[in-house]
Write a structure and sequence with these properties.
The complex is a heterodimer of chains A (353) and B (374). Chain A has 353 residues and is mainly α. Chain A contains 16 helices and 2 strands. In chain A, helix 11 runs antiparallel to helix 13. Chain B is built from 16 helices and 12 strands. The two termini of chain B are 27 Å apart. Classes of the chains: A mainly alpha (353), B alpha/beta (374).
């Protein structure tokens, strides 16, 4: 396999340097799946309401269209009162996603402001803001949401957004505070003071860009939390039930006994949509680390030897099949796995590859 | 100038004040003065660490003053005080004869256009998310008030060429992780020069670099000093490089300057017992064999055994000389009273009660000089 490298003094005879891989191709595979899933949902949220075959609220009086299973006319069937489930789903995805994104933006902004301020000012302000953080952290979120939304006079989406944002920031704020404190003492912050930068510029251009990955991850987590919480609230009926979201769809399906009547097409689509949104967001999170770290970006671009990535900091690769050391329990568990079968076949000289 | 501990002096008037003429003064006009500068850190309730105590020295345009000492001796804190990164507890800083007050932002920025600090660790002093261009563009814009984009670009290329990062086009778009330690440190130098300062404070600028490029970096610094008439403070723990690079050497121990003098003279004939230990511990290529055999350098009697005890650097409890627990020549007086700097020649002083034993030749030279003068 070791073909002799051509020795030449003419630089033009050497092969061209490897093309820089595009950002997309350097993403880990699971992050790609996350991007695709979320892309589909965002697309559905943007153009979905334009594609709805029926008005989601239109109750078809035909008795044959009550609880009809999926058919050509109604791709996802109908509800008990003859409403088209696909139309409801397409409209509902938009409302749920928009609500969750707004909550994500507001709560992440709050957590960045509180976290960075607390860490940078220190002393009294740090104590005060940390106390506030801790108070919000120990509040049991869902019961409070139910109570608050039950008492609020107007049950629209605005109050849901406000309450979810107010309760969604403390985790992110704590993370960002800790990270800011770690960065604040680094020499490059002192160096930017040497340069004569103003404090707000140090915060905005020196500290926060170093936390892009953390902030993005905290945003994705908050969106995830907002989807879960808003669906849960709608499911128990504490929201505006005249609008269509994934949560209100589930509410109506549950209250009209879709499960008992076996109308799976009524509750499965919104449920699966929530599950896939969550999966997509979690997978997306794995690709975010590289966003704020130029070093990781380049490491992913490293050359490969025998299919294995080689990074500049790695020891010289020794390409022998690894025989991992296992303890007694590890070996026991391993004996059930698929790779143990492959190992056994290779050892007996079988056709491993 | 020296508030405490001057009472016990018994020498001549000059010896009592300990004021000397700096060896760097011949290089050019006075730029930056530290007068009785001190810094206390609160380490706990009722506990205070005197990181820097009553330090005074002057930097002259075109001259290099080296601050030498071991880890924890307060030399980095001294640099940060002069750079305005820390607030002074006591003392005064004067720039070109004017007292400096850094509480106002505008005054601070004006001061920063004159005095720049270069950090020790090139791996920590550049922001990993910004390119070389950004690191140099900001100081060019802030300190020179350049508004349009084009002149800043040319200025950056000039800066990179000044620190010998050529071809500049190749480095301008790089991120710090794509550069070697030496290249990063050159970017740090370029960033400091972008403000066109008159004073450069270099906090161990080469200690984190490979030995093979240290000399190259020092000669680069020397070249920059000559080209821009920079007044330079060179902080190091390596007295050999100070001898190579500096005009005047200040030796710091436990936050105080214990000896000062012209670089060559001080390293050849150290007067203070601590300086003698420092010089003796620097590896001497001619005498490596002797040191390895355990014979010890022939600096003064008892150096080997006296240096074994643990340092009590910075502890404020004892009233005596801070070096006395480690000093081979310490006697009762050293443990009771802290010596004030005594002048031993026109350009040298040392803070030690036992100079007559520690460095009889240095003292004899001075007495002889005074005798012939009078």
């Amino acid at each position: 396999m070791t073909a002799a490298l051509p020795v030449t003094a003419d630089p033009s005879a050497l092969s061209a340097p490897p093309r820089q891989l595009g950002r997309w191709r350097r993403l880990p595979a699971n992050a790609k799946v996350g991007v695709i899933l979320m892309g589909l949902f965002i697309l559905a949220a943007i153009i979905g309401p334009l594609l709805t075959p029926y008005d989601p609220s239109f109750q078809n009086p035909l008795p044959s269209l009550s609880m009809q299973a999926p058919s050509a006319a109604h791709l996802l069937g109908t509800t008990q009162s003859g409403q088209d489930v696909l139309s409801q789903l397409l409209v509902g995805i938009r409302l749920t996603l928009v609500l969750a994104l707004i909550v994500g933006v507001v709560a992440t902004a709050l957590s960045v402001i509180v976290g960075v301020t607390a860490a940078f000012l220190g002393g009294f302000w740090d104590e005060l803001l940390s106390l506030l953080c801790n108070v919000f952290l120990v509040i049991p979120a869902l019961p409070l949401l139910i109570v608050l939304l039950g008492y609020l006079t107007q049950r629209g989406q605005t109050s849901t957004i406000l309450v979810l944002s107010l309760l969604g920031w403390p985790w992110g704020a704590r993370l960002i505070r800790a990270q800011t404190m770690a960065i604040r003492g680094r020499d490059f912050i002192a160096a930017s003071r040497e340069t004569g930068e103003k404090t707000w510029r140090i915060l905005a251009f020196e500290i926060i860009p170093n936390q892009t990955g953390l902030i993005a991850a905290s945003f994705v987590n908050t969106v995830l939390y907002a989807i879960g919480a808003s669906v849960a609230l709608a499911f128990i009926g504490v929201t505006d039930l005249s609008s269509w979201s994934l949560g209100t769809m589930l509410y109506w399906a549950q209250s009209q006994q879709a499960l008992q009547l076996g109308a799976w097409w009524w509750f499965a689509p919104p449920g699966l949509a929530v599950a896939f949104m969550g999966t997509g967001l979690v997978l997306l999170n794995t690709g975010i680390d590289e966003l704020g770290n130029p070093r990781l970006r380049d490491a992913a671009n490293a050359s490969t030897i025998a299919g294995r990535r080689v990074r500049p900091t790695d020891p010289t690769p020794v390409l022998l099949a690894e025989q991992p050391q296992r303890g007694r329990l590890g070996a026991f568990l391993h004996s059930f796995s698929r790779s143990s079968l492959l190992d056994a076949r290779r050892e007996t000289g079988g056709t491993g590859r | 100038m020296t508030g405490a501990g001057a009472a016990g002096g018994e020498g001549s008037a000059g010896a009592r004040t300990g004021e000397v003429r700096s060896a760097a003064a011949a290089r050019g006009p006075l730029a930056l003065e530290a007068i009785g500068v001190g810094k206390d850190f609160r380490t706990g309730p009722g506990q205070v660490l005197h990181a820097v105590r009553d330090v005074s020295f002057s930097l002259y345009r075109g001259g290099v003053v080296a601050l030498v000492g071991e880890s924890g001796s307060g030399k980095s804190t001294a640099a940060r005080l002069l750079a305005g990164q820390e607030r002074l507890t006591t003392g005064l800083i004067r720039l070109n004869g004017e007292p400096v007050d850094l509480s106002a932002r505008r005054a601070f920025r004006r001061y920063k256009s004159q005095v720049q600090l270069v950090f020790q660790d090139p791996f920590a002093s550049l922001n990993p998310v910004h390119t070389v261009r950004y690191h140099l563009e900001r100081p060019v814009r802030l300190q020179q008030g350049t508004r349009s984009r084009q002149p800043a670009g040319q200025e950056i290329v000039t800066l990179l060429e000044q620190v010998r990062l050529t071809p500049a086009d190749q480095f301008i778009g790089k991120y710090p992780h794509e550069l070697s330690g030496g290249q990063r440190q050159r970017v740090s130098f370029a960033r400091a020069l972008a403000a066109r300062p008159s004073v450069l404070l270099a906090d161990e600028p080469v200690s984190m670099l490979d030995v093979s490029i240290r000399l190259e970096m020092l000669s680069l610094l020397d070249d920059l000093r000559r080209r821009f008439q920079l007044a330079m403070l060179y902080i190091t723990h390596d007295i050999a490089s100070a001898r190579y690079f500096a005009d005047e050497v200040l030796v710091m121990y436990a936050g105080r300057i214990v000896e000062r003098g012209p670089a060559e003279e001080l390293t050849q004939r150290p007067a203070h017992p601590y300086t003698q230990l420092l010089v003796a511990s620097a590896p001497d290529p001619d005498n490596l064999g002797g040191m390895l055999r355990g014979a010890g350098p022939p600096s003064h009697p008892g150096a080997g055994s006296g240096g074994q005890r643990l340092p009590q650097a910075g502890s404020a409890a004892s009233a005596g000389c801070p070096f006395s627990p480690r000093c081979p020549l310490a006697e009762d007086r050293c443990r009771r009273e802290n010596p004030a700097p005594q002048r031993v020649s026109a350009a040298r002083s040392a803070a030690c009660w036992r100079l007559d034993v520690a460095a009889p030749d240095v003292l004899a030279g001075q007495r002889g000089g005074e005798a012939t003068a009078s």
